[in-house]
Design brief:
This protein is mainly α. A hairpin with a 2-residue loop joins strand 3 and strand 4. The chain is about 55% helix and about 10% strand.
Length: about 180
């Protein structure tokens, strides 16, 4: 600590305090009341001990409410370890977005990597998923849907009430 020779602030104590002071604790009580307690505290798997044991203990000792929920997410893994620039097992996110597009990239990440656990991913697994789910399955659905629209609705998407009436007429005789 500054001005306290021989004293060292435990790094996690210092780091965790930033969550509360960043939203006004000790300096802006109105702001703090607006943002605290946090509805959900989202953290990585490797730091769950600090956020689920030390942080609540610190808050309770100070008489401050704990976050309402802590959600621990896993890591994206490639070539046997979590993605890390220093290990060299990452790829360029801009090239990834250029290849797949933003929406497809979001879909691929959500589909291949459930949020709550670590997931092995690779360029090959994304390509396989993209071709299976988006190119084949979704492409087939769009093709069948547009064919049915052309055949039964003169190529236009009917209003919801029209679609309901059409569905009733398809299953029973209907006066038109």
């Amino acid at each position: 600590m500054a001005g306290e020779p021989g004293h060292t602030v435990y790094v996690w104590f210092d780091a965790l305090i930033n969550y509360a002071t960043g939203v006004g604790f000790g300096s802006d009580e109105k702001k703090f009341a607006k943002w605290w307690p946090a509805d959900v505290h989202v953290i990585g798997l490797d730091i769950s001990r600090f956020h689920c044991l030390y942080w609540p203990a610190m808050l309770l000792a100070a008489g401050v409410p704990v976050p309402k929920k802590v959600f621990v997410h896993g890591f994206l893994e490639n070539k046997g370890g979590k993605l890390s620039k220093s290990s060299g097992n990452v790829w360029d996110p801009f090239a990834f977005l250029e290849e797949y597009g933003v929406d497809a990239a979001r879909y691929l990440l959500l589909r291949e990597a459930p949020f709550e656990k670590s997931s092995a991913i690779s360029a090959e697994s994304f390509a396989t998923r993209f071709n299976a789910d988006l190119a084949n399955d979704l492409g087939n659905l769009v093709s069948r849907t547009t064919t049915l629209l052309e055949k039964f609705s003169d190529g236009r998407v009917p209003e919801p009430h029209e679609a309901t009436a059409s569905a009733r007429c398809a299953s029973a005789p209907c006066a038109r």
